[in-house]
Amino acid sequence: MVVKAALIESIFSVLQHQALGPEVVDSVAMAVGEPTGAKRYVKGHNLGEGTYGVVFKAVDTVTNRTVAIKKIRLGKLKEGVNVTALREIKLLKELQDPNIIELMDVYPHKSNLHLVFEYMESDLEAVIRDRNIFLSSADCKAYMQMILKGLAVCHKKWVLHRDLKPNNLLLGSNGQLKLADFGLARIFGSPDRRFTHQVFARWYRAPELLFGSKQYGPGVDVWAAACIFAELILRRPFLQGSSDIDQLGKIFGVFGTPGEAQWPDVTSLPDYVEYQYSPPQSFRSLFPQASEDCIDLLQRMFTYDPKQRITAQLALEHRYFRTEPAPTPCYMLRRPVKPEVHPKPIELLSPAGHIVFSPPTKTRRLQLFGGDIKTAGEASRDTHAKLQPELGTPIDAITIPMSIDPKTNLRPTLNSSDRSYLKRKLDMDIFLTPARR
Ligand SMILES: Nc1ncnc2c1ncn2[C@@H]1O[C@H](COP(=O)(O)OP(=O)(O)OP(=O)(O)O)[C@@H](O)[C@H]1O
């Protein structure tokens, strides 16, 4: 690990005093002997932009490895410090595991902090969306096992990820899945510790969060993992609410409105409101192709009462992972078709006649402009229809229902007011509550 603990600690202590700016951070780096951080990497193209910063591809000239560098503005003195980066560094330092993204280096440059990660080829969302990939039950089992292994490690170290979703599950060239994007992660453990409930992209939010719980635990990550499990099986996001209230409505429409017997504390949650009674649907009807073991595990992960919801560790020990078929070895998992490998960029024609090129690596940011908005499923079908002759492979008979909210054409993520609320909240949290070691 190239990360210089001393450097990071120095940055932490400098930033914790808040009276100092980015120039001081640079001089701290010099003092601990790493003035050439930025010079070590040859910058490549942008890989994408997340809520907290731009990520670009680069080559490490010392090791010759390809890396991904996340550039995060440290912020001006009067704006306060961007604690997201600090949080991510601090937690990733403690979490080293084959199923968790490796933070290889950290360096300040100008007024930005750069986090250097191992480069990952793709993500689980690209797999789920790629209609050329048939996901067998052994493949789904392999992905779930890797997700739960990564989560179990986080929870064992008292870390909640709080932003699990398919595009935060990155895939290496050997098919290995790794949990990434720890910008919203938090230390948990103290029973009276109160957290913000504005975490997770809506479709992956546990019902206790939607009812405003501030004293939640690792069950929120298990619920999100269950949503991803269902998404792998169905090949579409499972519970696609268009607002928080609608999200709860979608959950209750599927699993039934919870009563006190099923979830004893539900009525005392801060934002609890009574919903009209809906009966539960049977898991068998929701997942007709799934095995009994698979359904049993899904049911345990989708348990309403967070206290009774299965833990990531116990989920890993569930018989689903011990019975046939065995999880596919990761190097045998099919990788999504990368747009770069096509002879020409993927084209999507908008109704108004504009040619819209898909982003080089990130189909999930797909947004059409001019005229009607297509669903991602329609766009994906168009894309494949165009590519089929070039690929030479017939799009087989598997019919995969693909639907993303047709109104927005996008997966919901945190909105800007959520983000500024979070930023204020997290700024306070990190300086007021020392992390558990
Ligand atoms: N280690 C990595 N290797 C390759 N690409 C990466 C890596 N880390 C991030 N990326 C890519 O960089 C882009 C931005 O990632 P980032 O984690 O900052 O945000 P995000 O997950 O896309 O969005 P959000 O912040 O809203 O969750 C994404 O396209 C992501 O796939």
TrEMBL record:
Q: What is this protein called?
A: Protein kinase domain-containing protein
SMART domains referenced in this protein's UniProt entry, alphabetically: S_TKc
- Gene for this chain: LOC112294932
- Similarity comment: family membership: Belongs to the protein kinase superfamily. CMGC Ser/Thr protein kinase family. CDC2/CDKX subfamily.
Q: Which UniProt keywords apply?
A: ATP-binding, Kinase, Nucleotide-binding, Phosphoprotein, Serine/threonine-protein kinase, Transferase
Task: Give me the Gene Ontology terms describing cellular component.
Answer: cytoplasm; nucleus; transcription factor TFIIK complex
Which superkingdom, per the lineage?
Answer: Eukaryota
Q: Does the keyword Transferase apply?
A: yes
- Claim: Transferase is one of the keywords in the record: yes
**Which InterPro entries does this UniProt record tie to the protein?**
CDK, CDK7, Kinase-like_dom_sf, Prot_kinase_dom, Protein_kinase_ATP_BS, Ser/Thr_kinase_AS
